[in-house]
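[SOLVED] Predicted holo structure with adenosine-5'-diphosphate-glucose

Edit: marking solved, answer below. Original request kept for reference. I posted the sequence and ligand SMILES and asked for the 3D complex as structure tokens.
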Amino acid sequence: MASIGTVQTAVDSSILRHGRNRHRPIIPILAYRPKKSVDAWGLTNFHTVGFSRNLCEDNDGRLSLYCGSAGWRWRIKFVQATGKGSEEAESGDEQDDALHATIEKSKKVLAMQRDLLKQIAERKKLVSSIKSSIIDPESDELPYEESGGTFSSNRMATTEGDKINEDLDHESLSTSSVHSAVNDVNENPASASSEYSFANMTEPGKDLPHNEISFQSKPERQLKATTSDTVQSQDVPSAPLRSSVTPSPESFSNKNYYKWLNNATETIISDSETSTKVDSDKLKDANVGTTILSDAPSSLKYEKNKDAQESSLEENVKVQDPAGEDVKPPPLAGPNVMNIILVAAECAPWSKTGGLGDVAGALPKALARRGHRVMVVAPRYSNYAEPQNSGVRKIYKVDGQDMEVTYFQAYIDGVDFVFMDSPMFRHIENNIYGGNRVDILKRMVLFCKAAVEVPWLVPCGGFCYGDGNLVFIANDWHTALLPVYLKAYYRDNGLMKYTRSVLVIHNIAHQGRGPVDDFSYVDLPPHYLDLFRLYDPVGGEHFNIFAAGLKAADRVLTVSHGYSWELKTSEGGWGLHGIINENDWKFRGIVNGIDTKDWNPELDIFLQSDGYVNYSLDTLQTGKAQCKAALQKELGLPVCADVPLIGFIGRLDHQKGVDLIAEAVPWMMDQDVQLVMLGTGRPDLEQLLRHFEGVYSDRVRGWVGFSVKTAHRITAGVDILLMPSRFEPCGLNQLYAMCYGTIPVVHAVGGLRDTVQPFNPFEETGLGWTFGRAETNELINALGNCLLTYRQYKKSWEGLQRRGMTQDLSWDNAAQNYEEVLIAAKYQW
Ligand SMILES: Nc1ncnc2c1ncn2[C@@H]1O[C@H](COP(=O)(O)OP(=O)(O)O[C@H]2O[C@H](CO)[C@@H](O)[C@H](O)[C@H]2O)[C@@H](O)[C@H]1O
């Protein structure tokens, strides 16, 4: 006879195997389980459906438990077993008195629930009929509270001090969905009371619990010999981390690109077709159960979680969500549900210097919405409000020194955010890529070494991810060591055999270059040197982290189709085009999406004060005009509705083509326009911004600094956004602009070419203006046409705005494409 424990284990491991462990519907099942003949019931079916938590009898008379919460839906179905074992059980004396009693009881409960469901259905009908007769556009609740942040003066500050990412202080984060169950134990009082404030910096060691617990996970114990080799530090000559090869993307001709695009589309389609052909043996193998760490603290957490979740489950059984039936089931189920860990050096809103932070903050949520179990791992540069100390600590060797890592975590919008705390990451929140080459390299070594072990060490929702169906998504050179460590430390040793890694190229210009001697810092077996060693005519023979990551990763992605094409050219590959071409079979471009909650004129929290207003397609004309006036006022510019207001937001460097705008400024000033530029970066370009503001004080504003709030307000308030980037892997600002009815004028390169279809005045199609070469006269020409349309063809202008605003630019499309790649990687041997 099976024991209660056996049944629990069966249920639990099924849940775990699919990576869904947050809701363990164990107690309610047992409540309906017959006391005596447990064998008469067997778990035969287990898959996701779109229902709320509920226990009921199916049409076929079988007993099912429906359970779940936002994004996670389960049905656990019990049928009477018909096998040999059950026959034996049925023939015994104890045969089923209790079983019948239980079934009777269950039937009564089910009948009650059926009644309840009927009532709910009727009420729903009533509600929807009322709704259809009364449409109140203002009734939508906003998910955020007003930030309350305001500028201290009408003029924009331009001092160095503005470089502090001050707006993050004001950002109100959605904390309602933060799950705190895992923090019941080992919680650090210091971190629990921490504010989301840079003033409240943690001193080294302050967050560490007094009782040192150092977990030794299974793989770690087995690998000790591999990973603990001490490497001597060596003096190395300094070399630039960036390649100095400058591409001339003018040669990325549209004709060649579109020809390539046609072929590539065909390849992608056939690729995804083959990836869905699943070898069932491999599938079985890959589905090995997720390992649960049995270390005391994790199990303790599990017990506590279990209680919490069981009681909430009971509550939920009592209070059914009538809307539950309408919730779409997650599109995936079974073997294709992945455990996904995205690893990035920055993650918005906690840390952000550019687009990578935006992607790391938003893509995981979209993947989670598709039904995957998703984690983000990022460094903890400062005291963040939501993530709490998990109590898990571990020491890693970096350049022969012991470096301790502590993990903080939060569960937000369906994603486990895990932040790695270490003295190496502290006090650099305003300059996260700062320090000399070796400092940065050592930080990334620690980050990647530790990140590979997170699935074994950090229990999220009570359980570690383990390595079943696991795929890492590494981003840019900072985390390109991760695929290499996964291979060298684990897969070469027969461990984490089914774990895959995908490396995403957001910007090939930064590669983690150095002298070949840098190899000593990465702590790898000598034969791995070849992965890193690269020769190019500019840098000569050197050590290149991106090169090694590209070779070691199971799949390589980049952030647009256009950029994926450019990366294969000698102009666009920045010395890595050879490797990318050799690995073309595993390489693909997927255009970024945007976070449609954060970047949405209807919901934008930065448009709720200081004269700004939220607006939609319906209120575009009035709402956007109001935002423009508020921006002009805030900047101290004349408030004129008819004067075109032009904007630029971005890093001030060669890539973004700020110098082209600078060259065009005298021409612009003759056109009766206003210009606002927000950016930080190269000191000479920062100085240029200040200079223009000084010279054209009634028409130009140059904000030197990083301000998320100002970026949102500029996006809403300006009429035109300039992006004359020399190269642009994807570009997010033009996407944000289009959502806000702001018209982009862009150099047709990389992702800009993919996302901004040029305006065609004859057919009234297109989304903005593009120009073919990164040259000032081309920019002027495109901007001239744009201004003409703004002034003389109001209808066409409105058409452009409307087309931009009605696009689906959400991450959901991109997430689906990522999923294809992750699944293809999973079945790749
Ligand atoms: N001074 C400032 N103050 C406030 N916010 C500022 C700011 N400067 C920039 N930002 C914000 O940073 C982000 C920049 O996004 P981009 O896509 O242009 O970035 P970036 O070149 O960093 O990223 C790289 O990665 C991304 C993501 O894949 C690619 O889209 C891109 O082409 C590639 O170069 C935007 O959200 C923008 O608003």
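OP edit: The first strand starts at residue 41 and ends at 47. Thanks to everyone who chimed in.
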